[in-house]
Amino acid sequence: MRDPLPAPDFAIQSTQLLARALSLRTLPFHAHEILPSFGLYTFLNNFVAPRVSSRFFPETYFGLSEKGKKNWDVHIVSLLQSCFINTAALLVIWLDRERWSMGPIERVWGYTGATGMVQAFSTGYFLWDVVISATNLDLHGPGALAHAVSALAVSLLGFRPFCNYYGLNFVLYELSTPFLNIHWFMDKLKMTGSRAQLINGIALILSFGCSRLLWGTYQSVRMYQDMWAAFETPGGLPVPPWLAIAYMLSNTTLSCLNFYCFGKMVHALRKRFDKPKAGNEKGSP
After folding, report:
1. Quick one: how far is CA 90 from the chain centroid?
2. Where are the domains of the chain?
3. Cβ(178)–Cβ(79) under 8 Å?
4. pLDDT, tens digit, 9 for 90 and up, residues 261-284
5. Chain centroid to CA 231
6. Could you tell me the pTM of the whole model?
7. SS3 for 145?
């Protein structure tokens, strides 16, 4: 399936040298999607989110500290991006018939324009995420930066192309992100412990567990099996060890962070909705 947004000639020509230097053959066909998406997320964060928030949630937004406002704006961008990228990924997975016919070797080295498009929009977001996490390290913490760097590395390797097929499948991690952001906003809007937050919390746990832990682990295992098949294929294109290791390390980092975050989320939800013991209600030690 072709990219619905084909690259103009000037974009291809202007990025050829960079693509050769980085060994990212398909990058020139998608640079016109990476840079504008990075610019769009920056614009949403710096201009749209503050203005929309101050108009519709003035009491809450202006009651936040400067760090709190930055965090609020980041969550708005994350919410919008996750809704968009989930829709794009699901449409391509469903409509791209070339993907359906791929075998193990094609899943490692194969490429379609539509898959590259979704990968490009993801790359633009993760590039923005790296910048935001690095410049606000005291706010988001080193874990967020590690996640952003790992996700960006995996996305860029897709333009080699390498595991472009699986890169799109891993985009579906974001299926849980809208619920995560809604949960965060409910806390700020004084809806903590409400029935609406409970319903959203259940949806968050289910979507996170299914998309990031079950689906993500299953896709990782399949990807490692296909990499091994590429190693063993006679006369084929073997996977360079450094490339396989880099991709596996990035993917493993993301997987470990997902399991860690899942535990933190379950703990946070239990604190919000577990009823205090009778002894505590009476002030007992």
Report:
1. 14
2. 9-273
3. yes
4. 888 877 777 777 665 544 444 343
5. 28
6. 0.85
7. helix
